[in-house]
Amino acid sequence: MKIFKNVKGFFTSKAWKQADELFEESFERRMREQGHFEYTEKSFQIKNSSGIIEVLWADVNEIRAYKVDLLTVDEIRIDILSETSTITITEETPGYYIFKEKLKAVFPSLDLNWEEKVVKPAFAKNLTVIYKK
Description:
Structural class: alpha+beta
Strand content: 25-35%
Oligomer: single chain
Helix content: 25-40%
Distance between the termini: 65 Å
CATH architecture: Roll
Radius of gyration: 19 Å
């Protein structure tokens, strides 16, 4: 019974409130961070372990969004296909949220409902072409 009391104390409303506040702060920070991206009127650059990759907006032929099942959670991914390469951006990539907004601005014909199509049902790939030249 003593163990139950100790565990019960861990789940107090104060502890949950603090956890919620920390999560909210972290999420808001991620929504605003530029991350590994830099943008110009004609291109974007992303820094990775291999260096810096630049993609001209005009060279983008297709953008695909989908989920990958990581056993306990799904991860949303966006593939940017150009003449010379395919770049994959995940929701864990620093700067992901600003990148999504930039895509909407640069590609006005982008499917604005793509996230809804990709998210449900859970644990299914739900490959969706969100832009095609």
